[in-house]
Amino acid sequence: MNDWFAYNILGLPARASLSAKPIDDLMVWVHYLMIVLFIGWVAYFCYALWRFSAKRNPLASYEGSQSSMPKKIEIAIVIAEAVLLLCIALPLWRKNVEEFPKEEDATVVQVMAQQFGWNVRYAGMDGKFGQQDMKLISDSNIFGVDPNDPKGKDDVQFYNGNIHVVVNKPVLIYLSSKDVIHSFKLVAMRMTQDAIPGLRFPITFTPTKPGRYQIECAQLCGGGHSSMAGGFLLVESQDEFNAWMNSKTGGKTNATTTASVALKQGS
Q1: 231 or 75, higher pLDDT
Q2: Least enclosed by CB within 10 Å: which of 74, 119, 214, 251?
Q3: Which DSSP symbol is given to 52?
Q4: Which helix (H) or strand (E) holds 43?
């Protein structure tokens, strides 16, 4: 019933992650409550027009309503809202901000937003990121990678390309911003997280359907905001992901160079 309402009434797009259904269910239950309240208030409004019309009450009454029904209805509404908040919304929020997969069990990606695109970094085939230092961050070294660290030699970096992840495997993204506040949004995964300069936020989801999903910026970030939709999330098999990773060259820190390579390879 909830799925039918979500897709046919609310018009939500198809979901493609394990964490998407609880979010959809919360939105559906909120709309159920809104529909009940809308019908109730419209019915009461029509009743009040009839019950207190001038024809039925030629003389005004200054005593007011003595019924306890309005108070009971308000209490029932507060209880319903409290149930939605305490039993559904807060547990869902806690899970999203506290429960993260181990890095060795997930596809780990670093994403650095900037005006107007996304810088993406993988650990390479050795599964280990090179050391980073904020002092090393520059236009040619977006992630501040230490060039002397051998672990970073095979790291894969690119600008505004497609983010590759493995189906049915947790994805752990470390999100930050180079300049202004951006917002990393994947509608099909029901995931949105602000990217704030100076902070790095972990976000996670588990994709369940192979495919190509739009990456958007949900925060107005300047005149070129629309170009933030320049990349996609590609959900693929482990073999396809490994083949893509093997095809990339690691250790590049120049965003312009890696962007041109990514676009030429169609990644």
Answers
A1: 75
A2: 74
A3: T
A4: helix 20-51
| pLDDT tens by residue, 9-56 | 999 999 999 989 999 999 999 999 999 999 999 999 999 898 888 888
* DSSP states along 140-153: TBTT-B-TT-GGGT
Q: Given its phi and psi angles, is residue 244 left (phi above 0), alpha (psi -120 to 50 degrees) or beta?
A: alpha
Show the tokens assigned to 117: 């695109």
Helices 69-83 + 20-51 axis angle, to 10: 170
Neighbours of 211 (CB within 10 A): 14
80 within 8 A of 40, measured Cβ to Cβ: no
- Closest alpha carbon to 213 in 6, 13, 12: 13
How far apart CA 51 and CA 10 sit, in angstroms, is 35
**Reported pTM:** 0.80
